[in-house]
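Page 47, continued from p. 46.
Same chain as before, 291 aa.
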Amino acid sequence: MSLFKYISPKTKDEVLEILQKEKSNACIVAGCSNVLPNIRDKEIKAKVLIDITNIEQLKGIYQKEDKIFLGPLTTINELIYSDITSKEYKVLTQAAQEFADPLVRNTATIGGNLVTASPAADIAIPLLTLDALIKIESTRDKREVKLKDFFVGPGETILQDDEMIVGIEFEQSDVNKNGYFIKIGQRKAMAISIATVAVNLEVRQNKINQIRIAAGSVAPTPVRLTGAESFLKNKEINDKLVEEAIDRVREEVKPISDIRASEEYRRYISGLLFKRAFKKLADSSIHQFTN
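Result:
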């Protein structure tokens, strides 16, 4: 194993200065759930490890005007136990509960799950259906980008060498408060997902006012299924519509075959997971409306 220079800055600005100086020679670490395996497998080629674990300004879950803000150092366990996310944004807590085991959940961070850009990144899927905004900074600039535009390919994001995620934000809207996440893996939470689906839905008078659908492990990156969303929007909910939407979902995903599952199975199961999530939300919404 190669030798690394280890730095533990105390502020966000210190991190940005180091990134500006070291660029591709540096790698940010925090929860470290993937770092040692990646070093062993030579997937991390940087020589400077920047440990941001102790930077308080990158932690926390809080309400900010009409939005919810998540610090990138927020752990997966904090999503489960936060009053804010556990009460109103269950799509996030459902995904967090399916994430690895309690020990890993206590150290793995939201930011880390996003920047690894794995097609199977469980936390990215509900954040996609929450239409999350990623806040990015460097010493030269600040910018914001929708999460759906953040991923470039497997293990690749739009982040430049001198940039870091400083926050994740989403709206406190009705559609965001009605979501459902579902996952299938070979051994439940500890398994890398065979397929995951999240749906957020707002129904008015039995018609779909807003819908967002995201899927994982069925494309090169976590992905929003915008074609299926457009097909469903403003339509009246009925069994025929649901079956047609399942076909749209299966057409839109781009799975591969690997040791965990075949392309055909992933395509089939993605439609089934969508159906389960959609019907769960739709049944609840229609019942709420009629009572």
